[in-house]
Amino acid sequence: MDSSLFFDPSLLKSQPTVPLNFVWPKECLEDSHEELQAPVLDLDGFLRGDNEATLHTANLIRKSCLSHGFFQVINHGVDSALIREAYDQMDAFFNLPIHRKLNALKTQGSLWGYSGAHADRFASKLPWKETLSFPFHDNSLDPVVTNYFHSTLGEDFQQAGVVFQKYCEAMKGLAMKVVELLAISLGVDRLHYKDLFEEGCSIMRCNYYPSCQQPSLALGTGPHCDPTSVTILHQDDVGGLDVFVDKKWQTVKPRPNALVVNIGDTFTALSNGRYKSCLHRAMVNEYKDRRSLAFFLCPKEDKVVRAPKDIVLKDGTKQYPDFTWSNLLEFTQKYYRADEDTLPNFTKWLISSKP
Ligand SMILES: C=C1C[C@]23C[C@H]1CC[C@H]2[C@]1(C)CCC[C@@](C)(C(=O)O)[C@H]1[C@@H]3C(=O)O
Ligand SMILES: O=C(O)CCC(=O)C(=O)O
Ligand SMILES: [Fe+2]
């Protein structure tokens, strides 16, 4: 396969300028001049079952989710050595020569595999990044991530599969705890959403943002709201995650021991619109590659996504039609590039396509 047909950021970054299809509209490129006041929540008390600490944490979560839907968590129980191993394995993959990465190339219509700038999907506003995405579910005893790496990348990546299997298990466990806190913060039973997510197939995505010769024109990931439910992200120490709050870009400063948590569109619907799925982006810079590990918690694809009855009753109106995650995922993969208007456009599409 002629690898020159494929986007190879390591090649591109050696050119004097970025190609026009990587240049973003200036309104997406405004600088951030301040740090996002995202609360840093210590989960230790909650994870130990301390009720007072649980209520205190839930209150801080409610405050941030009513405002912008981003918060950071420390003492989250995910081993820092495991996070470090995940970065090491991710670096080993992205440092492969392009023809090796193409062995894992994402096929048309699939979420899974290697992608270079999504060049197969979009013709303009290409993100300055390479990604590796794979599925995680714990519905069977099979180590689905280890199997993915083995079947896609072969023996050389057996260890990567083991590391990311453990990483995703830790992410799923933490995400289910965060969902419990979200339920408490909304005033519904803490296990209200458990069944919806328990058997879901979540998305693990490794983001690799090569340094860029014109960082003021390109974006690692363009402005968007995550269509998923809850995102748990670790970013390396380079910095570049910005959130659009109060009509300005505000940066989320990297904290090595913290995980960044944000609400996605699906959880906005599950909160009847109370909790914000906020616009965010990933900047690139001239000198340092940047990496992030994003775990996207998703509901079981065919279960109905609807806000708890008590919340709808209290609010007086039901903000969104019932839908399934497979409906919304199909919409983002086939018809609509996720941005800040995904949810309203999705609900219009859903209602218009109902028989
Ligand atoms: C369901 C998903 C679609 C994306 C990956 C997950 C959750 C985040 C979405 C995404 C990152 C939002 C920005 C645009 C996007 C195309 C990307 O830059 O990768 C989105 C992902 C996707 O469609 O593959
Ligand atoms: O890399 C980051 O900091 C953010 C990435 C992101 O928002 C995403 O992959 O959805
Ligand atoms: Fe995102």
Can you walk through the features of this model?
The chain is an alpha+beta fold and 355 residues long. It has a single domain, classed as Jelly Rolls (Sandwich), CATH 2.60.120.330. Helices cover 35% and strands 19% of the residues. The chain has helices at residues 9-12, 44-47, 51-67, 80-94, 98-101, 144-153, 158-186, 194-198, 265-270, 309-315, 325-335, 342-353; strands at 34-35, 40-42, 70-74, 113-116, 130-136, 202-209, 221-224, 230-235, 241-245, 248-251, 259-263, 280-282, 290-297, 304-305, 323-324. It has an eight-stranded mixed β-sheet with strand order 2-3-11-8-13-6-5-4. Strands 1-10-9-12-7 form a five-stranded mixed β-sheet, with no helix packed on it. A two-stranded antiparallel ribbon has the order 14-15. Helix 3 crosses helix 7 and helix 6 runs antiparallel to helix 7. The longest helix has 29 residues, at 158-186. The protein is globular and about 55 Å long. The chain starts with 8 loop residues before the first helix and ends with a helix. 2-oxoglutaric acid (AKG) is lined by residues 205, 207, 221, 226, 233, 235, 241, 280, 282, 292, 294. The site of 2-oxoglutaric acid has 11 residues, from strand 6, strand 8, strand 12 and strand 13.
